[in-house]
Design goal:
The complex is a heterotrimer.
Chain A lengths: L1 H10 L30 H34 L4 H15 L3 H15 L7 E3 L3 E4 L2 E4 L1 E4 L3 H29 L6 H18 L4 E4 L2 E3 L2 E3 L2 E3 L1 H28 L2 H9 L4 H31 L11 H13 L2 H30 L5
Antiparallel strand pairs in A: 1-2, 2-3, 3-8, 4-5, 6-7
Helix pairs in contact in A: 2-3, 2-7, 2-9, 2-10, 3-7, 4-7, 5-6, 7-9, 8-9, 9-11, 10-11
Chain B lengths: L17 H9 L4 H27 L18 H6 L1 H6 L7 H20 L4 H20 L15 H27 L4 H16 L2 H11 L12 H27 L2 H9 L4 H31 L11 H9 L8 H34 L1
Helix pairs in contact in B: 5-6, 7-8, 7-10, 7-13, 8-10, 9-10, 10-12, 11-12, 12-14, 13-14
Chain C lengths: L1 H14 L7 H8 L2 E5 L8 E2 L5 E2 L1 H14 L5 E5 L5 H6 L5 E7 L2 H6 L2 E3 L4 E3 L1 E6 L14 E5 L4 H11 L5 E5 L2 H9 L5 E5 H8 L7 E3 L7 E8 L3 H20 L6 H7 L3 H6 L6 H5 L5 H8 L3 H8 L29
The chains are: A alpha+beta, B mainly alpha, C alpha/beta.
Chain lengths: 355, 362, 336
Amino acid sequence: MFTNLYINIEARGIKTGFSFLNERAGFDISESPIAYNANSSFLDSFIVGIANTLYVSIFGIVFSTILGVIIGIARLSKIFLVSKLASTYIEVFRNTPLLLQILFWYNVVLVALPNPKQSIQLGADMILNNRGFSVPRPIMEEGFSFVIIAFFASIALVVYLSKVAKRKFEKTGVNTFLLPWNILILFSIPLLVYVIAGNPLSFDDPVLQGFNYKGGMTYTPEFLALAFSLSIYTATFTAEAVRSGIEAVDIGQKEASSDLGLSAYQSLKLVILPQAIRIALPPIISQCLNVVKNSSLAAAVGYPELVTIFSGTALNQTGQAIEIILMTMSVYLCISLIISLVLNYVNKKLEIKGR
Amino acid sequence: MAIYEIEQSQKSPTNTKGPIKWVLDNLVATPTHVIFSFLILGLLYITIPPFITWAIIDANFIGTTKASCTGDGACWVFIIHKMDFFIYGFYPESEIYRINWVFGLSIIFLLLFKYTGKTFKAKIALFSLFPIIAYFLITGGSFGLVEVPTDKWGGLMLTLIISSIGIVVAMPVGIILAFGRQSKLPIIKSFSIVYIEFVRGVPLITILFMGSVILPMFFPEGMTFDKLLRVLIVVTLFQAAYVAEVIRGGLQAIPKGQYEAADSEGLSYWQKMLIIILPQVIKVSIPNLVGNAIGLFKDTTLVLIIGLFDLLTMVGLTSIDSHWTGFATEGYVFVGFIFLIFCSGLSRYSKVLEDRLNTENR
Amino acid sequence: MKKILKLSLIAIAVIGMNVNAGTFEKVKKEGVLHCGMSTGFAGFAEMGDDKVWKGFDIDMCRAVAAAVLGDANKLNNHSLTSKERFIALQTGEIDMLARSTTWTYSRDTSLGLNFAGVNYYDGQGFLVAKSLGVKDARELDGATFCLQTGNTTELNLADYFLQHNMEYKSVSYDTDAQVIAGFKAGRCDAITTDQSGLYSKLTVLDKSKYIVLPNIISKEPLGPVVRQGDDRWFNIVKWSLNAMITAEELGITSKNAADLAKNSNNPEIQRLLGVNGNLGEMLGLDAKWAYNIITQVGNYSESFEKHLGVNTPLDIKRGINALWTNGGILYSPPFR
């Protein structure tokens, strides 16, 4: 088989090898978290692709998890309409193809949005139109690093305080209610440093100029459609994991907690969720891998992630299919390897100890 | 002797049944209930009536051209007019009856399959007969049927062909891989593990690209494979890795005693695996297998990206017809509805199966 | 199912096993021409309600099928994405490619392919809404463009804006349908692609609201492509195209070809139609090869007017695609 490959390539004078990576790519990428222009190399476009894949995946993972947990709990709600709505949601979004959802949201919502000159203003300087969702871009000036340091310092302080409180609780059984203090620490210290450093943060607002808004940060419709569809699609699977996690908690536990006089909210937070997480977390982590893999469907709406940019545009320009597709696959394999390492670690952590 | 007072007879409790009781219990039992219920009713109020107005009340159903669509609602005329494309792709008008035959036969065979009882051989015969008949009917080129090349296949028919072949052929391949993963031979074992993990670690679309762009490079010169066949091969290989993982889970669920019992009966490895272990494994794995099948069915839409004309691609293609522009939304809603019916039907069936198997186990 | 797959695998392996045979022999033996084309492109390859592919590119395939097999309909169309097109040709899945493909230096030299001529001289342009008030491409600073990935389009666009020191944004979709959908929804200010493609897109847009800008920012000679290293086949495709052009020059049409074959005294017409001389023999084809092309497909002008010309929704003028005698640059080497 490999001889065939060799013959096919040799006999036809097709170019091979990885030297193309250093060549000038010659095409632009519309959104990129790192510096890139038409003079950059194919290797740069590869890196931009990976960065964009990770960027949209992180959005997808965060929002799908939040939404999934809410829907999963809602699914078991005693309130009829809540549980019915949650199960309808799961039924509809789980049973239609993700690609269809992406195309639907992209094309249908895009038509509904106004052009830049008739943009919808949301609050101060947030602008929504058919070119995307623009928000002011924070610019860190000199001295902002102190604020960041102060923020991390206050996190450290909070962690320390809660450790102290925990030790005290274990010794004396007195529960110190730290939450208000923690919030105060987290906000006041960085704010104080911010004022002392002389407001070292400014905003670059989006301004209408020529055809479109310039400046600020713009989330393109491609990004929004992809992140949104990934979130609502994956949330159905997360919700099912959460539901089965909660259902797996022994009914006796629920009864016991209500016998102890805990409210529904308290028993959910203190008794049921900690146990449900043990069961629900592994499948939720596997969903993270699915989000990363599914982000490759961006090709259909042109969000420039790895498959669109590298396996798409770059492949078309160079024609070196084998090298490019193997490089693309290996990126996904690395991500999947990392996620399974995390999964193993979590599984080990979650094992019930002392048996 | 104690004297008891005569207890006043009590009124029978009201509202233990009926709609009022249901509303009291389910919608307004506590203040939180009330708040949530009203919020959701509000949400439903702003979404459902406009949708119904669009989809039914203001919609147009009858007509033959774009001009028939007058109202603000959906233009189902478009869907009806293009129905041929959505179901049969570019399959020639005069030959469409062959596809209908296949659809009809599949129902007949399913019924036969269900009512042949426990005769295993009959089931196997039916199971292998149907694909052969379907193959000759769809491709043609023999028995006096006109040949219809695969570039004319499309729409729902193509979606069903890709997913059903993927699902069925991946079963044996996946089972072999799962056995391979448990093998004592290091080469087989490591090959199986690497294969399964590799395929599960990359997106289907990159595998489809391999099938459409790289795979042809591996064939000797002059030997070419039809694009659809290449897609079928990679889809099957992709699905097999997922089937293997499900079967592995099933294998782990089988108690050790079953293996030992089979060994003590003096059965060979294959006898043991095929007769004793496999049926049990499949039984416990059915829910996950159906889940995977649904996943593949939805994933067949990805062939859009490599240029096959499946059901979803048809929406894009028909919506740029110059006589019928601007009806993509109707197309997406229609296709979404078809997938919803198929997928939720399958998952319900799997629930039924699961429950039946559960009771059998008790 | 497995059995079927195995059977069909064997069947296809056997069909495809004529290793190393020339493309001509393979096409002859199979009795069908495998021609690569796009997944749908108004005017060039489009699918009507009758479920038959039609168009200017398809006619190129039909011409070769008519020349080699004597029947323009012995055609198997392979819809290819831009990613697949060259590989499908390199690996022999298709015998020729007619997919509005630009002839460039790097494609000709590094892909193992040969361009058999130019059947349409094109150039990249811009399509905008009239309401935008833009008359010239140089007013497009800061605009957003919708384009289809996988072509020379992206490179030309980047070069043009770099050269004129302007900024732009682009959205690269992978299908033509999505480019139109995105543009109509207002995702971008302009579509950019070859002008023929812009006219093709105008057919599905409201013509009174959109215009194609006069600027042309690149040279895009589009033509049929064959594998490198099969000179006979290369010649057949090259001269099939030339036959259509020459037929127009000599005034031979699908309607008068039969008549001219009998009654014409023009020696060049007689040679082309196979009445005189042995042109067919030199290519290893039937003497009537060009006659078959002209009667079944038509001459260049007929094909152009049928699919692209002013009487079609595309409404493209001949422009530089007119014959050299009419002020264009279409020029076929002589048939002698």
